[in-house]
Amino acid sequence: MKPEILLTQPMLNLTEAALDRAYRGHRLFQASDHAAFLAGIAPTVRGIATGGVLGVSNAIMDALPELEIITVIGIGMDAVDLERARGRSIQVTI
């Protein structure tokens, strides 16, 4: 079984294809009701792939109790609350 991750935004086709080969990707950007979508996948998602501009909101981070890692694909981590992530032992990488 592949580890499950959340993709917060569309990415390059090659990037999404590589992620899909290694992980079961849940695409938040395709969901019409983000809260319901997150509630349905919350117990299984271990990672997030996002961009530097969008980052990850605290609401998304808080909705995923098993979150272990946030990967920012691109430049910058200003849109990720690093203190909150540190407090939950969530790794944040670029």
Please specify the SSE layout and strand pairing.
Layout: E1 4-7, H1 13-22, E2 24-27, H2 34-41, E3 45-51, H3 58-63, E4 69-73, H4 82-87, E5 91-93
Describe the model:
Strand 1 (4-7), helix 1 (13-22) and strand 2 form a beta-alpha-beta unit. The protein has a five-stranded parallel β-sheet. The protein contains four helices and five strands. It is of the alpha/beta class and 94 residues long. The protein is globular, with a radius of gyration of 12 Å.
Short overview:
With 94 residues, the chain is an alpha/beta fold. It has four helices and five strands. Strand 4, helix 4 and strand 5 form a beta-alpha-beta unit.
Query: Order of strands in the sheet with the most strands?
Result: 2-1-3-4-5
Q: What's the end-to-end separation, in Å?
A: 25 Å
Helix and strand element order: EHEHEHEHE
Q: Would you identify the regions where 5 or more consecutive residues have pLDDT less than 50?
A: none
Global geometry: globular
Mean pLDDT: 96
Helix content: 25-40%
Q: What is the gyration radius calculated from CA atoms?
A: 12 Å
Report the portion of residues in β strands: 15-25%
> Class by helix and strand content?
alpha/beta
Number of strands: 5
Separate helix tally? 4
* Largest beta-sheet details: 5 strands, parallel
Structure characteristics:
94 residues, alpha/beta, five-stranded parallel β-sheet
